Amino acid sequence: MKKSIFILFVFFALSAQAQEIKPMPLINVAGEGKIKVTPDQVSISVSVESKGIKAAEVKKENDIKIDEVIKFIKKMKVDAKDFQTERVTLNDQYDYQKKKHNYVATQTIIILLKDLSKYDELMEGIVDAGINNINNVDFRSSKLESYKSEARKLAMKDAKVKAEDYISVLVGQKVGKAFTISDNTQAYYPRPVYGMAMMKNVEMDSAPRETLAVGEIEIIANVSVSFVLE
Fold first, then answer.
1. Any long-range contacts for 196-203 (C-beta under 8 Å, 24+ apart)?
2. Which uninterrupted H or E stretch holds 99?
3. pLDDT reported for residue 203
4. pLDDT attached to residue 209
5. Strands (E), the chain
6. pLDDT per residue as tens digits for the range 204-224
7. Which residues pair with 26 in a beta bridge?
8. Cβ–Cβ < 8 Å for 162, 191
9. What is the DSSP letter of 52?
10. What is this structure's pTM?
């Protein structure tokens, strides 16, 4: 009997406490921070592809060309840590029409060029050395982490401004402390802003050429913030 009375007492006490708990008034907003910067580095993916009917000869030919490419990259004073072999393949390809085997050897090198003024000379030199595929050219910034931090701060400021705009029309309320913060930034590399690119056109091969349109890249941060309403 005493046990039953105690259980009933605890039940009513918890019920009374639950009735006293009121939901916290919150406002949920999204913020975005966006920074446009001029890249100071470029990542270049290039490869040498060789074809033939004998695997050993195809691989040897490919190795010789890659050796020349690497020698030229070193000649351009590119730091050893800023270029590396990404992929090496040797594939047997059967030609059903001619009913014979061909072999294709490919080696891919990634180069991080930190001096954009060397771009034209580097690209011309590695093509002369044997590069026959340019896979990708990706602009970057050496201060990326610093710019990411700045973009995140701008995103938080944007969220706070939006919250204050909404609450400004409500009488007797104001935006309080942040209750929850969620980082919604997508994991991707900053995208180029092509509209800002500039390229010089020349007609004579003997004239200095400018083939790299640097432009700008966008660094974007997105957040979701819940603010307490006071």
1. 196/36
2. none
3. 40
4. 59
5. 26-37, 41-52, 83-95, 100-113, 133-140, 175-183, 191-193, 216-229
6. 344 555 666 778 889 999 999
7. 228
8. no
9. E
10. 0.69
